[in-house]
Amino acid sequence: MQLIPAIDLMNSKIVRLIQGEAKSVKIYDNFGGPVKAAKRWCDEGADKLHIIDLDAAFGQGNNHSAIAEITKNINIPIQVGGGIHSFDIAEKLFGIGITQVLLGSLAFKDFSTITRLQDKFGKESVVVALDNRNGWIMIDGWQTTTNTTLKNALDKFTKLGVKHFLVTSITRDGSLNGPDLETLSEAVKCSNAKILAAGGIGCIDDLVNLKKVGVEGAVIGKALYEGRFTLKNAINSMEV
Question: Interior CA angle at 78 toward 75 and 84, to 5°?
């Protein structure tokens, strides 16, 4: 199971939120900034990075320059999400060196963009973000509940040729209280879908449980920044 460290950005600083609430922001200056943190995760064994541009997600500018600095300084694949509301924004991000875009709201509002991006940047270039609260998909920065279930979304997007999905449990996000294993157990039943899990990871046992569920990978954020465990130890635990 692949372990992917997260770098959430606000004003070019590393932060974490709880359940996506801007007022819950906590800044992690002790990690020395985005580039230094990215290098640290590489040194500890990361083979991919997960970056969320929270300013773009909240419609308050973007962190494209900070992301560009990261891409210049590391040599592993990077997936980026947050505020990607058009093909042009995605294209710009690919132009500064990222590998995959995470599409949430745009994927649900304009299916054709997925096909356009896959045609230009490859079948692996798009990850659809299935942010859900109790199994119901939420979009628009987790502000809007759709009438689509996680299962229906997986069925719909796999038929469009999407292979990669980030399934985030909003109620668990930033909580460190453990992932939503029940929902993820249902998600992995969808054939042709590779599931990345996010939300609630607080200890290495959580990662062991995710591996048992059968997800392709896990995105780890707050647990790393709060020192619950090191990425190196987590990766080693997956090899046992």
Answer: 145
CATH number assigned to the domain comprising residue 88: 3.20.20.70
Domain that holds residue 23: 2-238
To which H or E segment does residue 48 belong? Answer: none
The predicted structure's pLDDT at residue 144: 81
Q: Of the candidates 46, 97, 49, 92, which has an alpha carbon nearest to the alpha carbon of residue 71?
A: 97
> Could you report the per-residue pLDDT of 106-164, keeping only the tens digit for each?
999 999 999 999 999 999 999 999 999 988 999 887 778 889 999 999 999 999 899 99
Burial group, residue 144, by CB count within 10 angstroms (0-12, 13-18, 19+): exposed
Q: What is the pLDDT of residues 33-50, one digit of tens each?
A: 999 999 999 999 999 999
Domain count for the chain:
1
Residues labelled catalytic: 8, 131
216: helix, strand or coil: coil
